[in-house]
Amino acid sequence: MSEDFRLSQFWYNEFVFYDYNASLDVEERLHGFFNYVLVEPPYLECMKGFGQTMNLISREVKTTPDGKQVMLTPNAFINC
């Protein structure tokens, strides 16, 4: 699958390229930035990577006593 930068032509100031093969390679300015995260993974195999990214960019994440991270920010996977 080739990279698709078509939207960057229209929204070049807001466009951020995302590669689900490098799910934690997200600009630092976006870490903990979003109040709501909605994703539509193209393949079931990449859902784990999308979940890692959702955790990284969600505004509210708490760490439980046993060290697990729980997202408090509303997040959803969709399938259209």
From TrEMBL:
Cellular component, GO annotation: cytoplasm
Keyword Transferase: yes
Entry-linked Pfam families: N6-adenineMlase
Top-level lineage group: Eukaryota
A biological process from GO: methylation
Keyword Transferase on entry: yes
Subcellular localization, as worded in the UniProt entry: Cytoplasm
InterPro entries found in the cross-reference section: Efm5/EEF1AKMT1, Mlase_EEF1AKMT1/ZCCHC4
Record keywords, A-Z: Cytoplasm, Methyltransferase, Transferase
UniProt GO MF annotations: protein-lysine N-methyltransferase activity
Name the UniProt record assigns to this protein: Uncharacterized protein
